[in-house]
Amino acid sequence: MRTTTLWSALAIAAACGPAQVTGESPTSVEGPRPIPVEAGCHDAESDPVEIMGAELHGDVLSIAVEHGGGCEPHDFRLCPDPAVSRTEPAVQALVLVHGDHGDDCRALIGATLRVERAALPHAVAAVESVDGRRVNVTLAE
């Protein structure tokens, strides 16, 4: 009985060991987390990230993303492109920069990132589209 319990405990410990994921990647979802807005980083290098969608909810811009990883903390920052279109209404790209800190794990992580509308350099009226790492927003007049 003790031998069976010991082997069971060892099997569970091995299964719960380091989070290096091989084969099929599980999906995990992180809750909403605030990210900073920084000027001058719109052309910075970024680790892979996919923007799944973006929405304005009152005073908060929510950005749904997916990225690989699972073993290390990741960081994000939103970098407004200083170029604003001359269209009516004007459009500005907000570029997401992702740092994975060398996380080689292969889990697919979903996260919702939050940015306070007041932290953005221009008054945002609506989300127009998402494209790659860019959230294109229309600006209030």
CATH third-tier fold name = Immunoglobulin-like
Work out the count of structural domains.
1
Radius of gyration: 20 Å
Which stretches are poorly predicted, pLDDT < 50 over at least 5 residues? 1-26
Would you tell me the overall average pLDDT?
85
Strand content: over 45%
Order of helices and strands: HEEEEEEEE
Widest sheet: strand ordering: 1-6-3-2
* Oligomer designation: single chain
Please outline the helices and strands.
Blueprint lengths: L1 H14 L11 E8 L15 E8 L2 E10 L5 E10 L6 E9 L7 E10 L7 E8 L2 E6 L2
Give me some keywords for this one.
single chain, 141 residues, four-stranded antiparallel beta sheet, 1 helix, Immunoglobulin-like, mainly beta, four-stranded mixed beta sheet, disordered N terminus, 10% helix
Concise account of the structure shown:
With 141 residues, the protein is mainly β.
Task: Write up what this structure looks like.
- The protein has 141 residues and is mainly beta.
- The longest helix has 14 residues, at 2-15.
- The chain has a four-stranded mixed sheet with strand order 1-6-3-2, with no helix packed on it. The chain has a four-stranded antiparallel sheet with strand order 4-5-8-7, with no helix packed on it.
- It has a single domain (21-139), classed as Immunoglobulin-like, CATH 2.60.40.
- The chain is 10% helix and 49% strand.
- It has one helix and eight strands.
